[in-house]
């Protein structure tokens, strides 16, 4: 069996008397796109922070390439920091208004080292082109960008260290409907070009269907349903999952994506 790139086994997280995550296991395998779905307060964002080693666990363990990193020091987490990147929900708060687009995309490359100024600039320009922007955006400031363009910059920054899995925390929910479709289409293309694995966190099963093959459903910190996304969508076992299915795609988004389901 293929060793997961990133996994958690039997993890629990407690905040005082509240059990935010209750004995959950999750595994992200090479080339996979896994959706993690639940309403607000379901524990999905806490579980994401566990996988990023930003949230200590009360029980269980976190593994990178099969190696236990649960108790690793910050120095011991360097492979994780390079191998795993994340794109958050709100691109507006993710960018420093005083820095040009070049700076946040270049930052992880500077940390890795090995590039002179010219090669660094060229690499940043290439990353911006890869996400549908281009070199003309290098020296623009965040206030000169639309919401979708800001999220593309955040995606370019996440791609800079050449991650294997990319964790996506509701990356479209703060955007207009037409822009949501464009970002989903971009993510689909990036996955094919770079052979990325995705963990896509969302409250919307319908959006997850457009990106993922597998899905896990969380409720009150517990995993209540999992399986192939088509099976879960068409034959949900849990009433909670059926309720989540009422959060359908916004009007027009499927048309903008074009060929979904062979249409």
UniProtKB/TrEMBL annotation:
User: Record's InterPro entries?
Assistant: AAA+_ATPase, ABC_transp_ATP-bind, ABC_transporter-like_ATP-bd, ABC_transporter-like_CS, P-loop_NTPase, PhnK
**Residues in domain ABC transporter?**
6-245
The Gene Ontology biological process terms listed for this entry are: transmembrane transport
| UniProt keyword list | ATP-binding, Nucleotide-binding, Transport
Show the GO MF annotations: ATP binding; ATP hydrolysis activity
Superkingdom as given in the UniProt entry: Bacteria
The cross-references to PANTHER family, in alphabetical order and at most eight, read: D,D-DIPEPTIDE TRANSPORT ATP-BINDING PROTEIN DDPF-RELATED (PTHR43776:SF7), TRANSPORT ATP-BINDING PROTEIN (PTHR43776)
| Family statement drawn from the similarity comment of this UniProt entry | Belongs to the ABC transporter superfamily.
What is this protein called in UniProt?
Peptide/nickel transport system ATP-binding protein
Annotated organism of origin: Muricoccus roseus
